[in-house]
Every structure is written in C-alpha cells, then in structure tokens.
From TrEMBL:
UniProt KW Transmembrane helix keyword: yes
GO CC term (a single one): plasma membrane
Subcellular location per the Swiss-Prot or TrEMBL entry: Cell membrane
Protein name: Lipopolysaccharide biosynthesis protein
Top-level taxon of origin: Bacteria
Family: Belongs to the polysaccharide synthase family.
Its membrane topology: Multi-pass membrane protein
Keywords for this protein: Cell membrane, Membrane, Transmembrane, Transmembrane helix
Membrane-spanning intervals of the chain: 12-35, 41-58, 79-99, 111-129, 169-191, 289-312, 318-339, 360-378, 414-434, 440-463
C-alpha cells in the first residue's frame, strides 16, 4: 500500500472513530450541561487538570516507540507493556499522595475522594494492549478505532446515567474512571496478547521516549495551566464556565485533526531517511490538515452565541466570548498539527521538547496577565495569543528539521487563510443584513453558508493558481472516487 493511500485509509478509519466520539461528546455535553451545575464542572476541571499533570510526569510516549522502532519484536512489545504497567502504578500513587494537600490548597475536602477516584483514569488511560498500536505500523487501524470508540462511549454513557441518578459531579468522575478501565481491559481481546514482564529493551525505548517525556510534560502544563491557575483564584462556578467553554471549543478542530495526526506518524515513519520525500509529504499533509480543520474552529468562533444557546442552554451564554477566543486557539493549532508526528518519525524528539518549553515560557505570562487584566475572557485571550506564538515557534522547528523556510510554510497556507476571511465576511455579513432571529435558525442558515463560502473561495483560488499539485488537488481526487462525481474525475485528471 502506498503512503498516500495508507495515510488516507488511516485518517478515514481514525476519523470515523473521532466522528463517533465527537457525536457522543457533543451529546454528553448537551445532557450533562442541563443536569449538572457550573460548580460541578469546576470540580471536575480541577480534578482532570491535576490527574493530567500527574500523568504527564511519567508520560514517555511508550507505545509510539513501537511504530518508530525498526525492529518491533515481541520482546520490545513486552518491554513497552511492562514500562506502561510501572507508569500506571506511579501515576495513581502520585495522585493519591497529592490528594489531601491539594484538597487543602483548593479549600475543599471533597477533592481528596475525587482525586482518589479520578486517579484511576490517569493510570489506565494509556495502559491498553500495545498490539493495537503496533498494528498501525502496518496501516491496520481497525482495532485501535474500536478501542477509541469504546473508551469514549463507555465513559460518557455511564456518566449520563449516573448524572440522572446522582445529579452531581461524581457522575463524570466515576463514569470516566470506569469507562477507561473497562475499555483498557477489553483491548486485550481485540488482538490476543498475554504480556510478560521484562525490561530487556527499556534503554532502546527510552532513547526514543526520553525527550517525549519532557515534551509531554511541557505540553500538559501548556494545556492545563490556565485551569489550574484559575482554580486557585476564581470560584468553582467561574472555573466551571471556563472549562465548559474549553470543552465546547475543542470539539470541531481537535476531533478532526487528531485522527489525521495519528495516521501521519506511521506514514512519516515509513519514509525512513528519505528527507526529500519526507519534506514533500509533510508540506502536503500539513496544508491539508489546516485546510480541512481550521474552518471548523473559525466557524464555531463566529457562531459561538447561537451554538452555546442550542448545545448548552441559556444559563451558559456567559461562556460565548470565551468560546470565541478559545476557538482561535485551536484554529492556530491546526496549522502545526503535523509537527509532532514529523519530529517523532525523524527521532528528533529533542526539538519537540524545546518547542513546548519555549511555548510554555510564552503561555504562562500571557495567561496570567490576561486573567489579571480581564478575568476569564482575558485568560482566554492570553491563551489564544500564546497559541499564535507557538505556531511560529513550531514553524521554526520545521525549518530546522526539514530546511523549509518560514515564508514558504506561510505561503502554502495563504489559500486557507484567505478562504477563512471570505467565510467570516459571508457569515457576519449575512447575519447583519438578514437579522436572523432564534439560535437554531441562525445555526441552520449561517453554518452551511459559511461552509459554502469557504469551499467556493478555496476552489476559486485553486483554479486561479492553475490547478497546481497540492493538498487541494488531493482532496479533489479523493472526492472524485465517490460515485456520481464524473465532473470531479475529469477535473482531477486535468
């Protein structure tokens, strides 16, 4: 199978899983937002942030080492499993030891019990069958897709049921923990595997994973710092509003980009030392990811007010400005999605860590200054600004790894950036002229209009540029494979 077809198949497989997960997540937010209070979500946000940071302290991207390694035999698989088991024990032990001091720091004794249960989620999240990851090396994504859907479905469905019964934050905490544990146990039946304890190839795994541990630590602090900091100074209800805004803002772009990122890692790895092919593959892949995912984030930012009203209910409308700014954060991230799989595939994980470290030094002061100056909205603005800085830093890393000038990286994204501008003008102009009333009506009319304006603009730019090779042509060729698309087939062959 060619790299292109393998990545497309993987992206479609993992994308299908993420679509299902996104639908479940949206339904979960829709139901839970009406059953629970902002304070409940504030408690969950702090617990989730603490567990995520604890997990990052021992995160070393162990399973991706199976994909990057040139000789992934059974001993390597058992070594990865053993290291994952040790990590799971360390994660839970760390959360358990920190539970009472953190309960005192946040002034709420409930956090002690909450963290003891939530710690199970952090321990078992990555403690699943390593054979699922190894299968992706051969572009077999089916088992991993089933696992990802099961992990999300079990946790959300149980949380919804428990929310009806208990009506408080315990529904989410217990639902997540039980769902993750059940999915992890079920993964060993998808591909038969009976692990053996060994650390014979631990040094080899660590050679790849050591820098990824530091990278993941910085990435997690980057990702969770705002919620941890806000939790110390704001009320739990205020943090709940902020966390819910983040949960909603992340759905469209990240749920679309993650399957593409996960499929790119084995695809890039298969190119080995062929730097020229890797350079071309990266540029085409990153352009395509941004082209497909950034309009979802910008679209939600434009329509944040009606989206919040329809999805979450009127009591959450105060989160709309925060949603708008956090959507910009995730929009900037779509332009650097492929940097992580590129660095991992090349074994240059040191640069991924340095990238996250530089981003961390930018993010912390920007979020703190934003929070001091403008409260929750200011913190969101600081986070959006720091994401723009991180995008520029990431492009400089790509220049170091592949020799692609910063100007060239920006140039290939100009059609997408211009089309996003056309989409914004179309949506805001139509909204202003028509004066549409009713949140649901606004979404049903303006969302398709924005999508159409974006697609037509991209198409016009591509035609004007001479129908050149690149990500847009690949999308045309992919669409041309669908039945009844004869016109596209002729265009793709032109």
């Amino acid at each position: 199978m060619s790299l292109r077809l393998g990545v497309i198949r993987g992206a479609l497989s993992l994308g299908s899983a993420r679509i299902v997960a996104s639908v479940l997540n949206a339904l979960g937010i829709l139901v839970l937002a009406r059953l629970l209070t902002p304070e409940d979500f504030g408690i969950v946000a702090i617990a989730t942030a603490v567990v995520t940071v604890a997990a990052s302290l021992t995160e070393a991207s162990l399973q991706p080492a199976l994909v990057q390694n040139r000789n992934p035999d059974r001993v390597l698989v058992d070594t990865v499993w053993t290291m994952s088991a040790i990590r799971a024990v360390l994660v839970y032990g760390g959360v358990a030891l920190a539970a009472w001091p953190l309960a005192l720091a946040y002034g709420d004794e409930r956090f002690f019990a909450v963290l003891l249960v939530a710690g199970l989620s952090g321990a078992f999240t990555d403690f699943f069958n390593p054979m699922l990851t190894l299968a992706t090396r051969d572009m077999r994504f089916g088992p991993l897709v089933i696992f990802q859907v099961a992990q999300k479905a079990c946790g959300l469905l149980l949380a919804i049921v428990l929310a009806f019964v208990w009506g408080n934050f315990w529904a989410i905490v217990v639902g997540n923990a039980v769902g993750i544990i059940l999915a992890a146990l079920a993964s060993y039946f998808l591909i038969p595997y009976f692990p053996a304890l060994t650390l014979r190839r631990a040094r080899e795994v660590w050679d790849f994973s050591g820098w990824m541990f530091l990278n993941q630590l910085c990435e997690t602090v980057n990702w969770r710092f705002d919620q941890l900091a806000i939790g110390l100074y704001a009320t739990k209800a205020q943090l709940g509003f902020y966390a819910m805004a983040d949960n909603l803002a992340v759905i469209p772009s990240r749920e679309l980009s993650l399957p593409l990122r996960n499929a790119l890692f084995p695809g890039f790895s298969s190119l080995g030392e062929d730097r020229e092919r890797l350079r071309k593959a990266y540029m085409e892949a990153q352009t395509g990811v941004a082209m497909l995912t950034s309009p979802a984030a910008i679209g939600l930012s434009l329509l944040a007010v009606p989206a919040v009203a329809v999805l979450l209910g009127e009591k959450w409308l105060v989160t709309a400005p925060i949603v708008q700014l956090l959507c910009l954060t995730y929009a900037f991230d779509t332009f650097i999605t492929a940097v992580r799989p590129l660095g991992m595939a090349m074994g240059e994980t040191k640069y991924l860590f340095l990238r996250q470290l530089a981003a961390l030094f930018a993010r912390i002061p920007l979020i703190l200054l934003g929070f001091i100056a403008g409260g929750l909205v200011g913190a969101a603005a600081g986070r959006a600004t720091s994401s723009l800085v991180n995008a520029l830093i990431s492009m400089m890393v790509v220049r170091r790894l592949l020799g692609v000038p910063l100007g060239e990286q920006l140039r290939v994204h100009m059609p997408t950036i211009a089309s996003l501008g056309v989409m914004a003008i179309a949506v805001l102009g139509a909204w202003s002229i028509t004066g549409l009333e009713g949140s649901l009506v606004q979404l049903l009319v303006l969302a398709p209009l924005g999508a159409l304006a974006y697609a037509v603009s991209h198409w016009a730019i591509w035609l004007q540029s001479g129908r050149g090779e690149g990500a847009f042509l690949e999308m045309v060729r992919l669409a041309a494979r669908m039945p009844g698309c004869g016109g596209l087939q002729r265009l793709a062959g032109a």
